[in-house]
Amino acid sequence: VLMGGYDGSRRNDVWRSTDRGATWTQMNGAAGWTARDYHSSVALADGSIVLMGGRVSSWDYLNDVWRLETAGSTEQHPVHVYSEPGTYSVALQAYNGNGYSSIIKEAYINVTPPGVMSIYLPLLVRQSP
Asked: Looking at per-residue confidence, does 40 or 99 come out higher?
């Protein structure tokens, strides 16, 4: 995950790579936090990311903390509804007292748009009286 930064103006965007940085997909063009550069972030064991501080101008620094929650679940049989067509990768992390193990399945789910449905009504033909 990449967040914020500076490319001529400060950003509050969020980008994600599922192929170890070969390609990137923008997840959000304007996240809820103030646009910034020179910030710090850390990924926690539960998958969430903490964003801290940063600079909003050459002379103005932030002293705030944001926690970006994971989109995962702790349920034994989680369910997720994909609202947009596309190809999605999935990840599984299993935890126990000895640590965790994880696996990623690239392009594992393919969601297609709903098909066009046609409804044909019976046609009644009458002769005029």
From this structure: 40
